[in-house]
Amino acid sequence: MKLLIKNIFKKTKNSIGRFLSIMFIIALGISVFIGLSESTAGMLYTADNYYDESNLMDFKITSTYGLTVDDVNSLKALNNIEKVIPSYSIDVIDKGKSIRIHALEKKINNVILIKGQMPKNNNECLADFYRYKLNDKILFENDNLSDILSISECKVVGLIKSSLYVRDEKGISNVGNGKLVSFIFVNREAFTSEYYTEVYITSKESKEKNSYYKEYEESIVSLRKELEKLKPIRETIRYEEILLEANNKIIKIKKALNNKINSSLIELKEAKIKLYSGKKELETNKNNNLKKFELSKDELNKNKNIILSNLGSLGINENELNNYIFDLSETIKNLKSQLFLLEPNNEEYNNLYSQIVETEKNYNNLLLIKSNLDEINKGLSTLENNYTIFYNEISKEEAKLQQGYYDYEIGMKELEKAKEEANQKIIKAEKELNNIEKPIWYLLDRTDNSGYISYKEDIVKVDAIAKVLPIFFVIVVILMILNTLNRLIEEERTEMGILLSLGFSKINIILGYLIYVMTSGLLGIILGLIIGYSLIPHIIYSVFLARYYVPKLITIVSPLPFSLVIFVTLIIMIFVTVITCMKELKEVPASLLRYKPPKIGKKVFIERFGFLWIKMGFMWNTTIRNLFRYKKRIIMTILGVAGCTALLVAGMGINDSINTISKLQYKEIIKYDSMYILKNDITQMPSDLIELFKKNEVVNPILINQNAYTFSFNNKTEDVYLVIPSDIVNFNNYVNLRSSITDKKISISDNGAIITKQLADYLKVGIGDSISIRNSNNELLIFYVSDITYNYVSHYIYISENYYKEIFKINITYNSIIANGKMDSNVKLNDFDILMINYTDDIIETFDSFVSGLNKIIILIVVLACFLAFIVLYNLTIINVSERKREIATFKVLGFYDKEISIFVYRETLILTIIGILLGLFGGIYLHRFIMSTAETDNIMFLRKISTLSFILSGLITLLFSFLVQLIINKSLKKIDMIDSLKSIE
Amino acid sequence: MYIELNKITKKYKMGDITIVATDKVSFGIEKGELAVVLGPSGAGKTTILNILGGMDRCDSGTITIDGKDISKYSNYELTKYRRNDIGFVFQFYNLVPNLTSLENIELTNQICTDTLSAKEVLASVGLKDRMNNFPAQLSGGEQQRVAIARALAKKPKILLCDEPTGALDSKTGQKVLEVLQKACKDYGMTVVIITHNSAISQIANRVIKMKNGTVEGIVINESPLEIKEIHW
């Protein structure tokens, strides 16, 4: 036995190529099988580990009216509950995009700090590692936050990852354009909201369970039941609370109003009383003064009349008095002048003199009367004046009083009006009270998190691919092992004969070979396991890392596939070795020692068509006959080559399908260069924007309304955009709507919605059916489908303004503009109320970077396929050559050139390769179709088309490998020694 | 001379031991002669045949065939030499198993330009009726005659035969030898037969006796016997 082992050891050394060949076939098979089948398990485990470490919630409860301390307490009382953490969040707009602000909690949904530090005050925050940088300032661009938040901006002091957001798509938001793009965490104290916006809950037992498996679902069932039971109870209680609160409010309003009315009424009444008393006072005052005036006037007039009557007795009336006085003074003057002419003391003089005295006496008398009269007249006029003044004053007072009365009247009227208004208000409030809707609790679990659920779904897709490929690989590899081992033992028959004739027991001989086979097999298994567990899962995971923000992959070794693969491989190898050895050892040593005659030639059926047979030429006849001579090898080669070609076609086909998408979507369908998201909803294009567009050579701007909604299918929820253009004709130039049914250009009409193909496929609807979508308030909207259009990325519903009005019962407003041309980047968008600009070129770039990730998987498939192609072809050709060594040596002796021999041997391989390639090209179409249908993501529709170039390339690569193999084989063909091979065993 | 071997030495290395297969072997054969290289097993005669047939090279010495030194030939030239000038007949026939008798002959006709008709050659070796049979369906003597026919069909200058009758009984062997002699006479080929059977040497024009890798002696046979006259 020791000798046998030594012999085997030497054999290994001498035929290292064959030893390695067995090893590599096994390594390849095992690495692919383990790599693909274990990748997904590791990925699921990695995610679960992440969720556990970050204490990801099991449930999240939100309510339309917020949640109260009582709600929280009632939750805490549940049996299966572990943690109840009330918290806050709100969606805000930052630089035109919706982001969510969360309250930082210590015990749940823990964030992973990647850079920086935790916030020390309310103005500091932790932000999404993938979007923000340290020291970024985030300004919340929306109003009315003060009810909920005490801050309106914050500074990024730490960058984080959160298990709440593992995917690049983060769901929908109730602000901005509806798409949530990022998140930040601030201190809990920064929230001032009266109510909690959400409550996070964990279940007892769920943590130990693996998130994506059934065991997890089962572990949260009892808590879910409890929560579902609690939900209506709390909703009712909360409803009653709200009603009561509203009622109290109304009563309060009523009271306040009544008080106000009453006090005004009193005021008015008091004013009225004052007016009355004022009037009375004024009247007595007036009367008193009037009497006084009359009395004074009467006295003065009495005096005047006495004077006048005195005058009258003199024969003078009042008017003549002054003339009389003047006449008298003239008379006096005359008399005096006459007197001057007379001699004093004569009678005449005396007479005159006495006359003068008399006249002067009269004159003075009259003067006195006059002054008295003047005084009375003056008194009378003063009295008149005073009377007038007094009268005016009284009139003014009276007018004032009148105004007071007037004011009072108005006040009364106003009071009546206010009373009426107040009553209306109360009625309205009471009406509103009746309209208060019952609060609704939303019970959300992890599967409502789009990242959480799509991670699993994407893994399922990889799994689907990963299940086909390894089976395919393993079949080919097993066939290869069978063939190789079979040949190995057959080649050893002489040695077996010698050993047997020397008296070694059959078991010993078989054991010897088993050791040889097992050594290479075990080495292959180990190598395969190493590659399978380390390399392949990481390549696949790296593709996921382009879309998912998850930690480093933790590879896990599941006991079943691990032991299965080792067990199956070893069993097959042992089985084949023992069976083949037994078959050979059945013969007597003597016949074993003889060269095993090659398979006998036979006529093939084509030879019956004599004409055709001769026409083909002698060398082809030989080749064809040779092909039919080794049927097992034909099947093996064709299958192997077909498989590799199919893999290549599928791999490159995936590449085609994905790479053409961005071209199709953003060149053929979406034709606008840019989309401007506006801050406010508008109905008409503002003139400053028109001006701005003109200045920047942005042409043909069209207003549109585009908002994100959701739709559900197969228990999944995806986003869909509802688009309403203001100008359907111009819109047709921007979005190429082409019916997927008639393949003709279509246009938006008033009698229904045009929906995109993938959406129609998911909802299983056609023209004439209706679809329903939900807005961020979970309200249902139903559309009638008028046509279905080609589309490859995202889902869209296109409707007209009129149809919008029909569905929404409101007039359309627009929130975006699409146009051609690019805006100067220096334009301050804020000045024009533009939130942001989305350039189609940027979208293409983002999309392509995602695609380049998928290309890695394709490269993996292609590389593996190439390995397989090479190993299969190499092995089969080598076996072919070694089986026919003697024949080839004969050819050599006969004087065939090396080239001719190569061609002769290669012609067979070539025919088989070409048949295999043709089969593989067909098979590839189906493999590609299968992979694409499983790999399709929920918002990207892949084409099922494979380009001609891919077919050609797949064929050529396989051919190239077959040439390469031939080059290597040529060397061994040259090495075949004529003398040695033809040596007769004497 | 037509064929001239001059001090041909060939050594084989088997691990640490060097075996001298031929040691300065020199002899010549005239054109159209039927020569027999006679010697016991291990005398080095197969080595001589291999070297003469361009299947192997000597370590030292020269071989001139029709004035050309083939010991200096490249691999390609040697193949060309085998292709055009040499016909081989082996002890175990070495027919291509999945070709019929006729096809086995046509195989060589594929690579040579001036050839005999396959059917005629096959008829001339007396196997006209078996031309569509596969080697496995033929007896040993028949197979050997197909092998000879294959060698003759390409009209080689020299026909080299390594123990052509070694696996045959004497009656069948005689038939094979008749064909060889006929080839020599009818086509003027130079035939070299290697054998350990001294009886066969009686039909040769020239007998080269070998032992232990050296030429022991050369005998010119002025009157070779008819094949019917020899027995073994």
Strand order of the largest sheet of chain B: 6-7-8-3-9-10
The low-confidence runs of chain A, each spanning 5 or more residues with pLDDT under 50, are none
Give the chain pair forming the largest contact, with residue counts.
A-B, 31 and 37 residues
The CATH architecture of one domain in chain B would be 3-Layer(aba) Sandwich
> Residue share in helices of chain B?
25-40%
Content-based structural category of chain B: alpha/beta
Proportion of residues in extended strands of chain B: 25-35%
Helix content of chain A: 55-70%
- Can you summarize the main beta sheet of chain B? 6 strands, mixed
* Biggest sheet overview of chain A: 9 strands, mixed
List the domain count of chain A as a whole number.
4
Put simply, the count of helices of chain A is 24
Written overview of the protein:
The complex is a heterodimer of chains A (986) and B (232). Helix content of chain A is 62%, strand content 14%. In chain A, a hairpin with a 5-residue loop joins strand 16 (770-774) and strand 17 (780-789). Chain A is rod-shaped, with a radius of gyration of 55 Å. A nine-stranded mixed beta sheet of chain A has the order 16-17-15-18-14-13-19-12-20, sandwiched between helices. In chain A, strands 3, 4, 5, 6, 7, 8 and 9 form a seven-stranded mixed beta sheet that branches. Chain A is an alpha+beta fold. Chain A contains 24 helices and 20 strands. With 232 residues, chain B is of the alpha/beta class. Chain B has helices at residues 45-52, 75-85, 101-111, 118-124, 140-153, 170-187; strands at residues 3-14, 17-29, 34-38, 60-65, 68-69, 86-89, 158-162, 190-195, 206-211, 214-220. In chain B, the strands form two sheets. Chain B has a six-stranded mixed beta sheet, sandwiched between helices. Chain B has a four-stranded antiparallel beta sheet with strand order 2-1-4-5, covered by helices on one side. In chain B, helix 5 runs parallel beside helix 6 (170-187). The longest helix of chain B has 18 residues, at 170-187. The two termini of chain B are 32 Å apart. The mean pLDDT of chain B is 86.
